Every structure is written in C-alpha cells, then in structure tokens.
Amino acid sequence: MIMATSSLESQFVTFSLGEEVFAVPVEVVREILDYEEAFKIPNGPDYLLGLRDVRGQGVPTIDLRLKLGLSKTVPTPHTRVLVMDIPLENRTLSLGLVADRVFEVTPFRRDQIEAAPDIGVRWRSGYIAGVVRRDGGFVVIIDLASLLSREETALLTLPGAAGHAA
Length: 166
Hints:
By secondary structure, the protein is mainly β. It is 9% helix and 46% strand.
C-alpha cells in the first residue's frame, strides 16, 4: 500500500559528517554521486574543492565539513556528493556538497522539528533550520540558502558553472 505524504510531513535526505547526522529537503537534491576529485579553482576559499562535471554542467563542489568548522573530509568508499539546486532570491544555485555517508530519504513530521537550540552564547547557528530527535541523538536540518553568504553565492556562481535564472 502506498501512503501519500501528508502536508504535515516533509521528506529529507539524511547524511553524516563524522558522527553527526544532517538532513536537507529531498526536493533540492538533484542526484547523489560517488566521490571523485574536483577540478581545482585557484584562489577559492578552503571549503571550495573545485568544479565537478555533472552531465555537462560545471558544478562547484564544497567540503561541508570545512564550511562548518570541522576537519577536512578524508574520502572513503562511502563518501558521496549530493548535487543540489538551491533556491536563492533571484536564481537557483547548483552546488555539490561532500558528505561522509548518505543514509536515506526519510519523512519528518512538522511537529517533530524543533528550533535550533539557544545555548546562551553567540554562535553561527543561522544555517540550522531545525533539529529532530532520532535514535538517541539529533538530526540537524540545514537551511542551505542561509549557510552561504551573499558573497559566497556570488563566488560560487561561476561563468559557465552553476547559477541559472529561476
């Protein structure tokens, strides 16, 4: 029996960076690819690994671990690249995001999603759309548009690369 997804839940792709589990909305994930080295772009930020050819399109690929202040990704046979189309204000940014491992597509009910915790000090949590308690831990839902600054999205929209009008 196929159950229709109710408007009270949304589908997410879950993945890990080290021991931490993150999620992004399934509708922004175009495809999931095996990891391969990206074509290096000179003078880019450390988290920008370079360009990856995805069906004839040059897609900027980032190491999300570095972007979040974690250690650099060490590729394993489980390392994947999530190719995403991220809606921005006036266009869509195509971006590859390196994950240590991709787990599954899973539904989260809206009433399961909690706001980012307030820990009483300033920390960059604007990229957290919410958290879900699961399996004795947490899944952090990433707000991709908030993860990158306006300057970074401009940098990642390279000629012949990722950005295109919405």
